[in-house]
Amino acid sequence: MPSGPKYLSVREHLRRRVTSLPEHTLLPPEPVLCAEYGVSRITLRRAVDGLVADGHLVREQGRGTFVTRPAIRHEYRESFVHRIAGFNSVMTEQGAHVGTAVLTQRIVPAPPPVATELALEPAVDVVELVRLRSVDGAPNHVAHSFLPSTMYPKAAEEDFSEGSLYEFLRREYAADLAHARIVVDVGTAAPEEADLLRVVAGSPLLVVRTTVRDSGGAPLVHSFSRLRPDVSQVEFEVSVGGR
Predict the structure, then answer these.
(1) Helices of type H across the chain
(2) Strand ranges (E), 57-193
(3) 228 in helix, strand or coil?
(4) For the chain, N or C: smaller number of CB within 10 Å?
(5) Residues 58, 159 within the same domain
(6) Structural domain includes residue 238
(7) Residue 106 in 3-state DSSP?
(8) Where in this chain does the record put each HTH gntR-type domain (predicted)?
């Protein structure tokens, strides 16, 4: 099993196991699973609790634990067809409850890849904003955003526990968010973000990188989001002949 906290390893292994089983399949009894995974009953229950919370398993009193399917598979959506609208705005419009925990908000020298995306000189100061985003209470992704601090100094102090970064930029700076370039690739979860996303360290993550530019092509914001692939999917909408 993967490295990391024991209950997370058991949970990830069980998750993969139950997703391959038909719905309503009865899980083996606790003593059997404890022996199979070499863990205590407490560790096993903690692993199973996570899968119950995520909608992969359901407990029925007196009958056991059965395979089920999550009711909703959340789509990671950012709309760039008729406007630049971020995850919070789009998901809220779809009726989902978006939660945000701000993990980092500070001014730092731009890392080389960020400086390149924002067309900045190396080590120029940027506002770094890192947020854990959840949908309907389940952790969905960790979003890292970078903005030139000289252009958007208020971003270092704004409360981003609610609302949209893009809407803030429009409201406070009349930012001309006109174009976006998106790149999607695959990464693996580092131990700290694995704990945040409730996955095992080393698990695959979807990585969505976005650079937003103004009408003249100047880069304004660079972000990358690292998503749990088991509860997220990335949707693209392309408009031809429109704005």
Answers:
(1) 6-19, 30-37, 41-53, 87-93, 112-117, 165-173, 191-197
(2) 57-60, 64-67, 74-76, 98-109, 125-135, 138-148, 179-188
(3) coil
(4) C
(5) no
(6) no
(7) strand
(8) 4-70
List the domain range (segments joined by +) for residue 48.
6-67
Q: What CATH number has the domain bearing residue 104?
A: 3.40.1410.10
* Judgement on whether residues 145 and 36 belong to the same structural domain of the protein: no
Do 91 and 60 share a structural domain? no
Tokens linked to 108: 């730092």
Which pLDDT tens digit goes with each residue over 36-73? 999 999 999 999 988 887 778 999 888 999 998 765 44
What is residue 79's DSSP assignment? B
**Helix, strand, coil % over all residues of the chain, rounded to 5:** 30, 35, 40
- Give the pTM: 0.67
Is residue 82 located within the same domain as residue 63? Answer: no
